[in-house]
Protein 1
Amino acid sequence: MIPQEVKQYIKEHEEEAYELLKTLAQIPSPSNHEEKRMEFCKKWLENAGARDVYTDEALNVVYPYCVTKDNPVVVIMAHIDVVFPDTEPLPFKEEGGRLYCPGIGDDTANLVNILLTARYLTQNRILPKEVGLVFVCNSGEEGLGNLKGSRKICETYKGRIREFYSLDGGLGGVVNRAVGSSRFKVTVKTEGGHSYGSFGNANAIHKLSELIREIYQIQVPSEGKTTYNVGTIEGGTSVNTIAQEASMLCEYRSDRLESLKYMEEKFNEIFQKEGVTVEVIGVRPCEKLNEEESARREELICRAEELLYRVTGKRPERRSSSTDCNTPLSMGIPSVCYGAYFGKGAHTREEYVEKDSLTMGYEVAFETVLNYCS
């Protein structure tokens, strides 16, 4: 359990943590353009006394704490990007005990915990046992970020990562299966022409709609959960033009590796048509764990469930999801994902976190990290 002095520390710094959340939440940080939050987090950690903080080519902020050249490490990360494309400050408001801001829960509230726990260990000279700790404010978790941040960390510390944590989502659940996915931009090109004078020529929009119809006739596997989606469509020139070009963004997902292979076959069959070009724009791996690795992962999940229940008084749900843990899980690294707040509206502009839940979140995050310390 979390020591009393840590609880006191959390209580004494609640207002500071609130101001940090408020500040961070308003900094725009769309996937692949996280520079502003990256710079803020790096400077904040350095001002807190952290040494050897660095940024990498993926736009991660990395703080290796007590990491030597060859000791095993535990990675603890929260992502800095949000789903919204805004480049101007995001709107924040407090109302009725709720803090509203796009992306404030996913994943800014958890990001605050990475910063606070890293500072606490640094300033109090609390040392980890047997491992180094790698704190990461990571990029590229959302959308077409394609998990670039976690991929880069797994590459940098390849062969050394003992366990991997992603603080993402809320206090009500633990991710117990990784959802893999493949995403595509599909473009159809035809001759087109004038809507009256060239009537009868092939229309790219019509051809694209036939592809969409075929996707939505796929019978998904019954084991686990498998889905598909067409997210956007665009094309054409005017109301009196037979469209020469049309395109869509589409994907399939599953929490089973076998089902991902099945969906790959089905999508490939649909795309094998004249005038259709396909660009792969994102691939998120599924988990690949042997028996021993699965057992170690189950230990992490059970530990997380007990921690969340002890702090909140509520039993967390096990959930399948696509998170930064996908990458290490595909490499056989025991990993777990859970969050540190209660709230709703993730991926909407009405997203909020419950202010009163933040203290519980701090306790969860601190105990997660302190479990590795003497």
Protein 2
Amino acid sequence: MKNIVVATDGSASSRRAVGKAAELARQFRAKLTIVNVVDVQPLGDTYRQFAEVELAGAPTGHLAQVTPLLPESYGAQNVTEAISTYDAQSWAFAQLVSDRILANAAHAASAAGVAEAAKISVSGDAARQIVATAGSVGADMIVLGRRGLTGIAELLLGSVSQKVMHHAEVDVLIVA
């Protein structure tokens, strides 16, 4: 084993996975790559479509009719501008959280004796991005927690760990 990818979302289960991955990396003198997947859905298209449908038949510039309903903190001239501002702020916040999750995981790996761990933040579907990251870094193994922060969506759509297990072309270790 030369290269291990561990996925983390900051949950207790993923912290245990980081610990196990760090233990394996130290034991096998393998490279450790820590990945966090950011899944922020932009509001832009959804709300633009909603405004178009709800305000159909209104005069040109009808999106501006909703501007008085916007929080003053946006300081936007129209809904489109406010939505763009909100989307940008959401992505910036998600990236800050991702950076903190990765830093905490790297610190835990270091405390477990891993000299250096690469940190990767990607966006999109968690399972797909974890598998893609493993492929792009040439991983021999993916380590991840059994349950993350997805909650009820996990019950309805299937867990990230289950999807990774079915789509990965390398060994997958699921930590309870």
